[in-house]
Amino acid sequence: MAKTIAVNAGSSSLKWQLYSMPEEVVIAKGIVERIGLNDSIFTIKYGDGQKFELVQDIENHEVAIHMLLEQLIKLNIIDKLEEITGAGHRIVAGGEHFKVSTIIDDAALKLVDDLAEFAPLHNPAEATVIRVFQKLLPETLNVGVFDTSFHTSMPAVNYLYSLPKQYYNDFAARKYGAHGTSHRYVSERAAELLGKPIEETKIITCHLGNGASITAVDGGKSIDTSMGFTPLAGLTMGTRSGDIDPSILPYLMDKLGLTDIKDMINILNKESGLLGISGVSSDMRDLLEASEENPDAGLAIEIFEDRVRKYIGSYIATMNGVDAIVFTAGIGENDADMRRNVINGLTWLGCDIDESKNNVRGEETVLSTENAKVKVFLIPTDEELMIARDVEALKK
Ligand code: AMP
What we know:
This protein is of the alpha/beta class. The chain folds into two domains: 3-146, Nucleotidyltransferase, domain 5 (2-Layer Sandwich); 195-383, Nucleotidyltransferase, domain 5 (2-Layer Sandwich). It has helices at 61-74, 106-114, 123-136, 156-159, 165-171, 180-194, 248-256, 261-270, 273-278, 284-290, 295-319, 329-334, 336-344, 355-358, 383-395, and strands at 3-9, 14-20, 25-33, 40-46, 50-56, 84-91, 102-103, 141-146, 202-208, 212-218, 221-225, 324-328, 365-366, 375-378. The strands form two sheets. The protein has an eight-stranded mixed beta sheet, sandwiched between helices. A six-stranded mixed beta sheet has the order 11-10-9-12-14-13, with helices on both faces. A hairpin with a 3-residue loop joins strand 4 and strand 5. Helix 11 (295-319) crosses helix 13 (336-344). The protein is globular. 43% of the residues are buried. The structure holds adenosine monophosphate. Adenosine monophosphate (AMP) binds at residues 209-210, 238, 283-285, 288, 329-331, 334-335. Pathway: Metabolic intermediate biosynthesis; acetyl-CoA biosynthesis; acetyl-CoA from acetate: step 1/2. One of its GO terms (biological process) is acetyl-CoA biosynthetic process. InterPro entries: Ac/propionate_kinase, Aliphatic_acid_kin_short-chain, Aliphatic_acid_kinase_CS, ATPase_NBD. It comes from Vagococcus silagei.
């Protein structure tokens, strides 16, 4: 039977999910963590609750994939490698070139490499992984599924920064956004729940996880999104600052005695957001626990909710209306208080949450009251399934 593997490679990790297609059944999934470090962790979950785990040094992605393919056979998850007829690779930066998921041949792979400028930690690892697949599974179709593709439909009004236009013309300096696969998946599902052709819908999708972004989806197309040139912009995130006034950077560098802007950007990426405000943790569950005693943890939660609400409000203005608001990803799917606090600030705009329905985690649910003008949905995201579907569509 044909299998498709959805692969999500980070700089030191490799997450994957193996599907039997076209039935869309997950037959195994796993993660390799700490690649290139001591004591890498290699895990596979399969069958009915079986788990395989190994802790040993895994020096690079090639070794990790070798091990993975070997274990899939040893654990009888597949009989032979040729069963894996498709591999979908999540790629962070697709620039303006990759507008849709694309079969990766040598020319496309070179472009993925060239786009490393936009995602220096991710694109090189993703290109490496594709090369390893080409080598170890020469008959398998490799497809790139880009985080940015869904947002290539944004109009210039929304993707341009108010900078000298020449910087866009000469250097492609613009907003690209991210999380596109997730926004595409949940917006398509929301249109189904609305029972309307997606072309006739206005949907705001809130992907609220450790990384977080909000997208205005008008007629099935992303027309604006909160992340920017990189995933640092927009909402308050686990460790990322989201939007700030750039003039604060030289001011703080001076105060902190920093001379390299990269150190400052590193603080914005890794030491800010929920972690930076609370001083406790980047993880929303920890903040919820700490907030009873620690006012800064409570403040971090309030700031997070405020930014989500502001972006929703501004995207209602961008689209001149909204039919549905979708919550997804770790915080969006699990944090009922956050959803209530956000929506309760938007009642004037026609939103109304049903408290009894909102008391739910991770299950597709209509959260709004019967008579609310705007539907509010919880829709669990499934980027891996979207990746597998894109591969399947290109196999034909
Ligand atoms: P993700 O990046 O999508 O895996 O989401 C991770 C975020 O979801 C972290 O901030 C978690 O604390 C948060 N999260 C997971 N479960 C819950 C929960 N039950 N309540 C609140 N936040 C949660």
